[in-house]
């Protein structure tokens, strides 16, 4: 059974049971409290407290999906038989519709009948009085009624109590299905969560609450729901009876590209494949390598792969051929991969180029180490060369044996606190050299960057209208030396392909070095000239209008009410890159972009 067939059987099965099939959401979640999408339920979070909205949006209280998911928590585990960063999660969901009996019935039927696999055992929640959640005897009864011989294991809150995801949300006991793999080990394949409760804090806070003197009881959800998740790769490993996920049809053709000469350790082959595959998906969803948040996750994946490329002196085309194979293999199910093919490949090479010089120096320094490295020194290497922790650890060999991620992270936090304190001082009211409300700069150097970003923001605004139509209106903007953040009215998510076109248009204007000019005009006259203006603002009678105009043809790319400052020629802007597109509020989208 191919993994393509498994996806199809899953969606067909749940569609036949009245579920609306919903496409995967982006790996960049709308929920700002979560870095990346880690589970299928994330895009459905609001529906657990508002089932009527589910009926309105999906025509049903039940949905099913195959969700692109990414777990940074497993990054250090990658290399063994079953851990991954990126994976696909098959899931079915009920928002105040069916509950335990149907959920367990569907799962059992799908595993044993549709796929013809055997269940080794299942788990259920043993209960925890301190938070007011009883043992899940109902699930036990349901399992027994379906299969009197089934083995049921009772487990605690750490293992079989899910959620909340993000800063608060639905949560509840789970029942998990375990199946035997080709190594005769039982592995968890399906996690079936009964969202019966709501907790007004994160999962860490929930767990912390358990040891508190007077723990908070969980609130009951008005409409209990179901959230299930099953990793496609693990399921394929069971269905295809392979000993590792990397031998399934999801990976076999990628691994093949690495098995020739020179021989790489198997764990490193797996890291490379996992990291390149994950990078393709992150890039296609608009993540760009950086030193922050999702961008940093991507950077770590790519740079670790580059280090292996270097130390095993692999030919530079191999990785590109793997990226292309990933796009080819997954592109029929995830069309965004095909659409983003060029930007994926370009970004890949750009990051490789950025890293190559520092990698050289960093590797030299690491391989020359004579004594154990301190966390502070390791952090300095990271800061100077952008070499991620896991690579420092690996290249340092015996000198990094005692270096732990905890100590490194501590160093990282110390540094972050320092720079935050610095930033607060800078922005503490008097420290700002320049602050128009929209533009903020602490010194001359920052002013130069925000000026470039400011002109780029005008170009972005105009390009968005050209690509998406005049529905796009500026709703707000905020520019710092780090980035521009632009809010605009638009009724849906902007696709990656549209973002690529917007980015392309802006960069074309940069390349053609348009002239940036301004005129002072009467307000009415300015309106008549078609200049865009920010509808929330009140303008004086006489206003300044900035025009971005082709130096030879006189074509006007953008015309906007504005107080400046701007660059004189768009060529000064440099490369414009959209980092993220997300919802800001209802009907309003937000784009973050940088110039390089
Ligand atoms: N949210 C649960 C998980 O991720 C079930 O989908 O395992």
UniProtKB/TrEMBL annotation:
<feature type="domain" description="Alanyl-transfer RNA synthetases family profile">
    <location>
        <begin position="1"/>
        <end position="596"/>
    </location>
</feature>
<dbReference type="Pfam" id="PF07973">
    <property type="entry name" value="tRNA_SAD"/>
</dbReference>
<dbReference type="Pfam" id="PF01411">
    <property type="entry name" value="tRNA-synt_2c"/>
</dbReference>
<keyword id="KW-0436">Ligase</keyword>
<comment type="similarity">
    <text>Belongs to the class-II aminoacyl-tRNA synthetase family.</text>
</comment>
<dbReference type="GO" id="GO:0004813">
    <property type="term" value="F:alanine-tRNA ligase activity"/>
</dbReference>
<dbReference type="InterPro" id="IPR018164">
    <property type="entry name" value="Ala-tRNA-synth_IIc_N"/>
</dbReference>
<dbReference type="GO" id="GO:0000049">
    <property type="term" value="F:tRNA binding"/>
</dbReference>
<dbReference type="InterPro" id="IPR050058">
    <property type="entry name" value="Ala-tRNA_ligase"/>
</dbReference>
<dbReference type="InterPro" id="IPR018162">
    <property type="entry name" value="Ala-tRNA-ligase_IIc_anticod-bd"/>
</dbReference>
<keyword id="KW-0030">Aminoacyl-tRNA synthetase</keyword>
<keyword id="KW-0648">Protein biosynthesis</keyword>
<dbReference type="InterPro" id="IPR045864">
    <property type="entry name" value="aa-tRNA-synth_II/BPL/LPL"/>
</dbReference>
<keyword id="KW-0820">tRNA-binding</keyword>
<dbReference type="GO" id="GO:0005829">
    <property type="term" value="C:cytosol"/>
</dbReference>
<dbReference type="InterPro" id="IPR012947">
    <property type="entry name" value="tRNA_SAD"/>
</dbReference>
<keyword id="KW-0067">ATP-binding</keyword>
<dbReference type="InterPro" id="IPR002318">
    <property type="entry name" value="Ala-tRNA-lgiase_IIc"/>
</dbReference>
<keyword id="KW-0547">Nucleotide-binding</keyword>
<dbReference type="GO" id="GO:0002161">
    <property type="term" value="F:aminoacyl-tRNA deacylase activity"/>
</dbReference>
<dbReference type="GO" id="GO:0005524">
    <property type="term" value="F:ATP binding"/>
</dbReference>
<protein>
    <recommendedName>
        <fullName>alanine--tRNA ligase</fullName>
        <ecNumber>6.1.1.7</ecNumber>
    </recommendedName>
</protein>
<dbReference type="GO" id="GO:0006419">
    <property type="term" value="P:alanyl-tRNA aminoacylation"/>
</dbReference>
<keyword id="KW-0694">RNA-binding</keyword>
<dbReference type="InterPro" id="IPR018165">
    <property type="entry name" value="Ala-tRNA-synth_IIc_core"/>
</dbReference>
<dbReference type="InterPro" id="IPR018163">
    <property type="entry name" value="Thr/Ala-tRNA-synth_IIc_edit"/>
</dbReference>
């Amino acid at each position: 059974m191919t993994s393509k067939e498994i996806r199809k059987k899953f969606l067909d099965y749940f569609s036949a049971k009245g579920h609306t099939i919903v496409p995967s959401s982006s790996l960049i979640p709308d929920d700002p409290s979560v870095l990346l999408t880690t589970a299928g339920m994330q895009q459905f979070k609001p529906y657990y407290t508002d089932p009527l909205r589910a009926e309105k949006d999906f025509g049903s209280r039940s949905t099913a999906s195959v969700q692109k998911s990414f777990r940074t928590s497993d990054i250090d585990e990658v290399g063994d038989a079953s851990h991954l960063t990126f994976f696909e999660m098959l899931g079915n969901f009920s928002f105040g519709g069916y509950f335990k009996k149907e959920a367990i019935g569907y799962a059992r039927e799908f595993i044993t009948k549709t796929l013809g696999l055997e269940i080794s055992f299942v788990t259920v929640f043993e209960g925890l009085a301190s938070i007011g959640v009883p043992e899940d005897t109902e699930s036990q009864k349901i399992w027994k009624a379906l299969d009197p011989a089934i083995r049921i294991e009772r487990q605690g809150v750490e293992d079989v109590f899910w959620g909340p995801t993000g800063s608060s949300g639905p949560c509840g006991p789970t029942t998990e299905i375990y199946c035997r793999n080709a190594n005769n080990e039982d592995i968890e394949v399906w996690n079936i969560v009964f969202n019966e409760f709501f907790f007004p804090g994160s999962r860490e806070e929930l767990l912390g609450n358990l040891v508190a003197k007077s723990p908070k009881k969980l609130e009951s959800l008005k409409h209990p729901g179901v959230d299930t998740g099953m990793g496609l790769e693990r399921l394929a490993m069971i269905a295809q009876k392979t000993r590792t996920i990397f031998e399934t049809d999801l990976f076999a053709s990628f691994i093949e590209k690495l098995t020739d000469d020179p021989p790489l350790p198997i764990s490193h082959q797996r890291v490379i494949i996992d990291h390149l595959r994950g990078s393709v998906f992150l890039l296609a969803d608009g993540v760009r390598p950086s030193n922050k948040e999702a961008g940093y996750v991507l950077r770590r994946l790519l740079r670790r792969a580059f280090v292996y490329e270097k130390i095993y002196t692999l030919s530079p085309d191999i990785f590109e051929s793997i990226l292309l194979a990933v796009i080819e293999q997954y592109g029929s199910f995830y069309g965004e991969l095909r659409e983003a093919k060029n930007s994926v490949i370009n970004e890949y090479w750009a990051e490789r180029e950025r890293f190559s010089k520092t990698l050289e120096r960093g590797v030299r320094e690491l391989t020359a180490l004579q004594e154990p490295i301190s966390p502070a020194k390791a952090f300095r290497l990271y800061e100077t060369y952008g070499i991620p922790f896991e690579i420092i650890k690996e290249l340092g060999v015996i000198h990094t044996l005692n270096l732990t991620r905890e100590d490194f992270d501590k160093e990282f936090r110390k540094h972050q606190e320092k720079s935050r304190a610095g930033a607060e001082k800078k922005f503490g009211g008097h420290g700002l050299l320049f602050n128009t409300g929209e533009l903020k700069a602490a010194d001359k150097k920052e002013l130069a960057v925000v000026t470039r970003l400011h002109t780029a923001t005008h170009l972005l605004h105009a390009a968005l209208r050209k690509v998406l139509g005049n529905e796009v209106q500026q709703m707000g903007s905020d520019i710092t030396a780090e980035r521009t953040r632009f809010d605009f009215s638009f009724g849906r998510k902007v696709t990656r392909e549209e973002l690529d076109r917007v980015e392309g248009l802006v960069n074309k204007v940069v390349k053609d070095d348009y002239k940036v000019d301004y005129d002072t005009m009467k307000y009415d006259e300015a309106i008549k000239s078609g200049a865009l203006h920010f509808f929330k603002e009140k303008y004086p009678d006489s206003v300044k209008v900035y025009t971005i105009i082709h130096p030879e043809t006189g074509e006007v790319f953008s015309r906007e009410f504005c107080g400046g400052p701007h660059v004189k020629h768009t060529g000064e802007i440099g490369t414009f890159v959209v980092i993220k597109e997300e919802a800001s509020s209802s009907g309003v989208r937000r784009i973050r972009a940088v110039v390089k």
